Each structure stands twice: as C-alpha cells, then as structure tokens.
C-alpha cells in the first residue's frame, strides 16, 4: 500500500507540475509581459536551466541504456535465428502502423478540409534540409568507430554494434557468460538510476511547460485552430483505436490496462517532446510494468524511437491535405498513394536526422508537387503538436513491444495484468543469459 501511494504521488506530482507550469507560462506572457526581470532571470534563466537539466538527465542515460540492454538481450538468445525473426516482426509492425497512420491522416484531412480559406499572402519561406537516401541510411547504420557513434548519440549505429557485440558474447563460451553477467548487473544499476531521476520529473516538467507557454501565443493556435484540432484528434484516434485494436487482436491483452500502465511514460514523452529522451522511461514501463523480457524490449524500444514515427506521419498527412487545400491544388488518388508510400519509407530513410518531422514533410510535398513554402504556415503550432506526436510515438513503440514479446513467448502476462506490478524496487530485474522468462530469472536468483 505504501509503494502504491508513492507511485500515485509521483504521477500526481508530474500532473501538478505540468498544470502549474502551463498556468505560470500564461501569467508570465500576459500579466507580467512587461516585467523584464521576470523574463530575463526567471523564464530565460531559472526555468530554462531547470528544463535543460531535466532533458539532459534523461538523455544522459539513453546511450548506455541502449547499448547495455541490447547486449544483455542479444547475448541471452539461445538461437540466434530468433534475432532475425524478432527484427522482421518489429520492422513489419512499425511500417504497418506508419502506413495506417498516414492513411488515417489523409482521410481526416480530406474529410474536414482544414486548409479551406487560408490566406497565403503572409507565408514565409521554409528552407528544408536535404534528407539522405535510403542507401546512405543503410551504409550509415554500420559504425566505423563505435565510441564516436556513442559520443554523437547515433542510435542506429549503436543498435547495430550492440547487437553484433551481444552475438559475440553469446558465442564466446565461458568468457561470454562472465561478460553477460557483468552487463546484467550494469543493466539493473542503470534502471535504478532511471528510478532515481524520475523523482525530479515534476520540477523538470514545470520548467518546460512554463517556458513553452510563455512563448507560445494563443493567436497561433486560433489562426490554425482547425488544422490543430484535426491533427490532435487524429493522433488521439490513432492512439486509442488503432493501437487498441492491434493490441487486442494480436495479444488479447486489455488496452485499458495498457494505457493505465503507460501514463507515466506518456507524460514524460509529452513534456520532453523527444522519443529518444523518453527511452529510459519507456524501457522501464515495458519491462518492469508490462512484463516484456529485456531481450525483446531492448531491441524494439530503441528501434521504435528511431524509425517508428506514427505521430509524425499523421502530421504529414494532415499537413499535406492542408497545404494542398490552402494552395487550391487538387491531389489525385495516385498522389495520395504516393504520399502514403513516401511517408512510410521516409520514416526509415530519415531516421536520426535533426528536425526529422519537417524534413520528412518536405520530402512528401516535393514528391507530389506541392510547394514546400507551405510548411511555414504550420510552424507556429508545430512545437505543441510535436509533444502530442511524441506521446503517440512512444505508445506505438510500447504496443509493438508487447505484441512482439507476446508472440515470442517473452512476456509475463501475470505482471501485465497485475495493477501494482513494477512498483517494487526489487522487481527491476532483467533475465540473465539462458533464462526464457522474467519469472525464471527471478526464480534462479532466489
């Protein structure tokens, strides 16, 4: 009971921090707009520093968590052919959900027509960065210097090196077993650090929300109100209906139980607007609270944070329809199919590129002959929508993790169905090499 109260207290404090931050932001923007001291020393000083420290504290764990967890997960595989099957399933589900997301977005954008009557005379120019080709992405997945890849935070290269290193550990016999045991202990220490850092979340969320809503004007949301509502509504629809149906169909698990266990991760994703920064919390949620084995979650979660962009795909679909309507350009059925194909493949092709959402949108617009300058119309509300997109993205990562984990027999269903699972510190355990389930790993430790 005490543990439950503590967990609910953390959740409540994060929500409180978010609400107070939004309120403070509006106060700073309206009532204290002319007070230079507030903006110079509080908004751009204390709040800025506090928000950056919160993001940095989460980002700090991303590289070691991805590497160590993947080494543990890969080295625990008895049959290495499992890795190919695991990767195939994961990639197929991620591409399928992205295709569904972009199709749903185009449907909603065409149905509600948010771009009708938009004035384009004040549209500014948007300069899109060039995205790498798919071939360049595949070449770039293999690191020439793994240490440099970790220093730069290149997620795909870290994943490839960690998988290869884990395979080598699995094949190395007795020395490999000692290395696997060491990495297993490091994994538990890292997850303990995640738990400790989550305690600063309410303060970090307050700083982020206060600073954001000090600079985010309501006029931008009002002017693009219909576009904003269509994108937000489609994101919610995809998260609740598409993911809910997938989870129920492929696993038989309760979507309501899933969403209840996702609440902390969703709030972290919303406040940070970064799938990568949320990886530690998503990993903790899928393994500790939902019972998915580390050998699955350590692969699906980092890969999903890199290439699974359902939320971004939804933005692209609605934005494509919005810009076409705003410029009075009619798109044919083949154009819509091209948008679906381009956006789905681009979710892999632009993985790891800064500003990925707008780069992908520029690629899509160019593919169907729409003016890239139209992106300037939606930049005003993109920051807030980016927060919603990130929450949807990590929800999709977790759904696919559960589906793949269940299909591989690597999920503790009792833990998933237990409303209090993952609340005890001693439950942060990853399966050691040779264990088939989380419960077996716990039994072997006992």
Automatic annotation (TrEMBL):
Per the record, membrane topology reads: Multi-pass membrane protein
Regions of compositional bias (Polar residues) in chain numbering: 436-446
Stretches the record annotates as Disordered: 416-446
Q: Where exactly are the transmembrane stretches of this chain? A: 12-33, 53-71, 91-112, 155-173, 193-213, 225-245, 303-324, 336-353
An example of a Gene Ontology BP annotation on this entry? dicarboxylic acid transport
Annotated localization: Cell membrane
State whether keyword Lyase applies.
Answer: no
Annotated protein name in UniProt: Sodium:dicarboxylate symporter
